Amino acid sequence: MTTVEPTRRRLSTGHEVELPLELTFAMGGITVPARRSRLEAVLPDDLSALAIAPGVGCVALVGIQYHRVGGRFDDTEDDGALEPYDEFAVIVPAVRNGRTDAPGAQLVGSEIGGYVHWLPVTTDASVALGREIWGYPKERADIEIDDGPQRFQCVVAEDSDDSRGREWVRLAVAPPRTRVGTDHREWTLWSYTTMGDDLLRTRAEIWGDISFGTPIGATLEIDSELRAQLACWTQPLARLSGPRVRARLHPGEPVGKA
Prior knowledge:
two-stranded antiparallel sheet, 3 helices, seven-stranded mixed beta barrel
């Protein structure tokens, strides 16, 4: 892990958070193929959709159940922590500074990350946290997550005061039999967002019990409007699960124009 001097930010909700933001959570997700031309239409000009085959890109759909948001990992108290919440991420794997659209060759001399297209969450404080600090496209939604030993299930529906609204996504992921992540392995990932006129890049350090596997045991039901927006298939290419994950989310930095 990288040691960084922390800074504090006050949100419009009155909450104060310390950056880098430290998080613990469980997650389950899949990657599905999508028409690359449609993905290009939702990306900022400085990004291009990752090509996995001629004319084909991909989208990652990930449910996340946060156990701790903020504070320090070694704290016994919840000082500086927000109320835990649930989240669903729609992420378009993308390339920055790419010089070609050819699969494989697209990665030479470029940077790969994930553009956050949609990020529904379950609390107002988490909406403010994501929008005000990183420009994450967060909005309130009705999200139910069942993190059981046999499967991770996430259901996302329109937020409604009276009852569950229109269902957008139903995702279920069975843990892969083969685990390639360990508590001692660390990944650095980049996410991209837009904030004002800027394209922001945010570094996330992630480590924990994370597994990857074939799509066997993963299912996806997705609303026709969202599916058409991304021009994605419903048959997963791969799945991931992480019952015990930690992350450190750094402040974003401008890397281009929105």
